[in-house]
Amino acid sequence: MAYQVCIDIGGTFTDCLVSNSKGEIAIFKSPTTPGEFEKGFINVLHVAAEGYGLSGADFMREIDLIVHGSTVSTNALVERKTVKVGLILTAGHQDILVLREGPRKGAFQWRLNYPDPYVPRHLTKTVAGRIDARGRELAPLSLDDVRKAAAEFRGLGVEAIAVGLLWSVVNPAHELAVREILEKELPGIPVTLSHEINPMPREYKRIIAAAIDASINPIVRTYIEKLKTALDEEGFEGELLLANCVGGMMPLAEMIRKPIYSVMSGPTLAPMAALALSDEPDIIVGDMGGTTFDVSALRDHQIIVTPDSMIHDDSLGIPKVDVRSVGAGGGSIAFVDEGGLLQVGPRSAGARPGPACYGQGGTEPTVTDANVVLGIVDPDYFLGGKMQLKRELAEAAVDKIATRLGVSRQEAAYAIYTTSNHNMVAAIEEITVREGINPRDSFFVCGGGATAIHIAEMADILGLKRYMVPRFMAGLSAFGGLISDIRSEESAVLLTSDADFNVAGVNDALKRLKQAGNNFLADAGVAPENRQFEFSFLGRYEYQSFEIEVPFEAKDGMVSESDLPGLVEAFHKMHERIYSIRADNDVVEFTAWKLRAIGKRSGQDIWQKNTLPDQVGAIDLKARRGIYQQESGRVETVPVYELAQLRAGAQLAGPCLVEAETFTAYLKDQHQGQIDRYGNLVVNIA
Amino acid sequence: MDSINRLELDVVTERRVDPFLMSVLKSRFEAIVREMTLVVMRASRSAVIKNARDFSCAILTYDHRLVSVEDALPIHVMSMDMATRPLTDLFDDITQGDIFLNNCPYTGGTHHADLIMAMPVFFEGEPLFWVVALSHHADTGAPVPSTYLPFAKNIFEEGMHFPCVRVAQNYEEKKDILRIGTMRNRVPDMWLGDVRAQIGACRTGERRISELFARYGCDTILGFVEDWFDYGARCAKAAIAKLPAGSYSYETRHDPVPGVADEGIPVKVTINVYPEKGEIVVDVRDNIDNVPGGLNLSENTATGSCRIGVFNNLDESIPHNEGAKSQIKVLLREGSVIGKPKYPVGTSVATTNVNDRLMIAGNCVFSRMGAPYGQAESGSHLPAGVGVISGADPFKHGKSYVNQVFVGYAGGGARYGFDGWLTYCGPANAGLIQLDSVEVDESMYPIVIERRGVLPGSQGFGEFEGAPATGGVFYPLDHDMTIVYAADGTSFPPRGVLGGGDGKESETIKLRAGEKIVLPAFSEETIEDGARIEFTACGGGGYGDPLKRDPKRVAATVNRGWLSREDAETVYKVVLVEADEPGLLQVDEARTSALRTV
């Protein structure tokens, strides 16, 4: 039996999704082991081996492929436990990481300190030398300044170096010369050049990416090496791929070369899963966990890449799959403020102590407590009965809110439930409205353990007509990893416009991109027939200061003068789609050219092999349970079904509950569910 | 404790809708304003709207009470009621599908460049709400190509005024009215595009509120609005109840502007605080008469800025709705530079400059209560770092360019517990304006930004420090560049409070062939090919006695490169030594305490 495995390390659990050669998929979980993530990684493989009745060694030998969403770099950044980075900038611009582009704050928010720069002042050095926007050298690079910086870095104990010089994207000579000197002066210290890691003509974003990349370089390298050693010792002989944050997989060597691409890679796998689960053009993916609700989207069945991801007070710099997070999870805490308004989150009870009903010492009311009081969550069947919840503790916690609001316990629970739903709806609207996606015409795919409890009401608020609760909702990201392709993004800066189009320059850039993409795929062992290339450019109207990304077709990877009208029209169309206007008479400027190199894998074919038999006869009722209904103000009894008992084509009429080992789904009145042939629950709203 | 219990009692007894609906409808109304904001953002053309976010949306009840203002610029919305109120006074035939335009300070507008678009929302024949979209337009057809005209004495020297004019009826644009606007405009396509973006936002708002009515019913929505105002009032009262009672005054001064105000313009604010009533009265009647120029405030901005100063000193979580607003009363005088302008004096600069000074005074007057209240003066507007540059682009065959850049702007004042905000810009912007990328500017315009960054030691010292000044040098490539700016804070830099020091003044210098030429504070200058312009945007004022500053904070500021070791010792009496980590300094506790106890 040849297994394919995806391991996704979460805050609490390490998830392991395994697909066998028949396409049968199983989920296994083991506690995450912070500090030594590779231990939890190996542990969960042993849990899986046990699940198949195999010895660890036998199971390892039969695994063809492991894909892995690592959190080691994200954790290092979140906990600010990165290595000491030295930064080299252009003289006169030592404050690029201090000023950013003006950090975000609220209009009336004044009780805050200005955030410190990612690299502190004493580790930031400047060197004389200047290139202009057209690549001309205005002042030569001072080699003495570079040597002086290197000597200072040596004394300061710098472990990695980032170099960010103005206009290196147009003329990299100075950055390359700096690296040459550093390699001589400080052998063994990794150096990240801004024009290589993030070639975009916007210095803060390019250079913060270089600084972040350098600061996690040794950490990612060490982790990958430890993981490889551990797997070797277990006798694993298959292939190991790592998830990146642009929605695909990378070989180890590539990740070691560009470690920033591992940051926040786990959550980006959820939209990749949606890509495989549905053919719908516009899809919203919501993943509600213990502390956050992560939302992402597909537009025209394409993942959306954003240049605006943040980590603490800084931009991540590189474009990544757009996943937005709000503090709305099962553990989010409800409170009544000074003016008497109920608020839920963003403070969370987390995994410890967790919701009051966990009985681990938490006393504050959380969303999960409200769900227990409402009757949606069965305290005796949480995680398939593996964890006993305490209803009386949930009630006591929710009663605090009831007293403050002067309403009944159930009304208070509903108020918590619906407030939390509205917080998530606001996050969904944020991404959809901004990206030009109409929620009313979109399909919604649920991910994470808790989303299916809340989706029905959110769907009604948003005016959604259809949503899906995937069979592996609780491990949606891991599922996304299992089926996603090998993928890398390459880009090159070339400023030109439709008024004065530089065909030769563009083709030169495209040629270099294609070469880089081919090299990447060859290194990843992708056969030429499985290679796919997607081109796009970043464009703007003259005097606009923000670019938008526009995909285009390039025959044989080249463009000609006659392609220009098509490129310009594609830009107008995309601008109209995102900003609702087009300006046909304005000059269109092209600032950068991008290539997405994709190595197709057969993940999709594997899981779709396994289908359910058709439902024959009536469906089995598991139980009936009372749920508080806000509309009637009463507890009403609804049927409860067990997902494992349902077969393809089974029809479910809301209101009802569907329980599985890893989740509960609540369908409201007018919500019609059907099990598809892969075991997913697809709901239509009348 | 008593007051808290009373508040809880209020919550229970005075409710009109279920508590869960409060949270739900609050978030629905916020979502509507956010969506309106996005429509303006997406559909507008001009850079000042798109990049500088110089626009705001709001929802008011039909009787002009402010419901929701998510993501808005405070100066646009804190007295939005003044811009809609004249509509119901002037028209007796308002019907569904009407849209009105108002940019006239004599009918409640802010200043001539802010076009305020208002649309009534009807439900079953009854007008119940106003949806409003305000945008700052790039041009209004004034005699000179700018919307800030410090020397324009009266409205006849300003751009086009629309004193409450119906621009759409039965959802159809009135082409004749729009033709008046496009005819008198230097960039008519941009103007019309931006106007239509606002119309789009109003129609989106109208549609979404109608959907809310259909879903929740009229009684629930109207009941919610009253509960929501009560909630805002309760939050504001609770915050004001914590302040010390009394009457407090503060005066600051705008720089001299030749021919308009040769001595500068004093700006005086008095607040009377009534904690037991949870109310504050802001009195600005004791100010000079209107000046012969564009620096006079409009009634709208004077009222709004008085409230903003107060809100800047209250908890940020208070909803900025009618309930909260109503706890802040404003007293104005007709004919005062800070008050109701006397027709037809000019008000084209009513949203920045003197208005910034009014907000600064409002921020600072609370410091008269002593620590921990209030804040120090912050920098104000339009140094050369945010000047309007123009010229003929040599790389585009001499094509002309003109736009405002945001290369560097002023720092914020300190407040108790916090140093000033570095990328502040001015009180009207609340730290929300984006700073330009050097590379984006250099790719867009034929200029080179030689340096741009923090100027160490330029902050107002204190127990809490103002933000340091930002300065820089830039120059035109292969052509002559013109720059227009109005650098307030050159004569009267931001002052510290309660013993805190002053921030550095604004400076404008031309560098030419080894020569340093000091330029006037308010001017239009040509920077010839080969010359460079150097600017300093003000640093913020300090708060409290520098000798009370936590020595660790002093060490951190030195390590950040914003303060010299010498200043640490002479100003703060903090002695630093090498820290364990190479390259960093730390406090020498013994020598510091010896120095500080002398």
From TrEMBL, chain A:
InterPro entries: ACX-like_C, ATPase_NBD, Hydant_A_N, Hydantoinase_A, Oxoprolinase-like. It holds the Pfam family Hydant_A_N. Residues 5-185 form the Hydantoinase/oxoprolinase N-terminal domain. Residues 206-489 form the Hydantoinase A/oxoprolinase domain. Residues 504-678 form the Acetophenone carboxylase-like C-terminal domain. This is Hydantoinase/oxoprolinase family protein. It comes from Mesorhizobium humile.
UniProtKB/TrEMBL annotation, chain B:
It comes from the Bacteria. InterPro entries: Hydantoinase_B, Oxoprolinase-like. Residues 18-546 form the Hydantoinase B/oxoprolinase domain. This is Hydantoinase B/oxoprolinase family protein. It comes from Mesorhizobium humile.
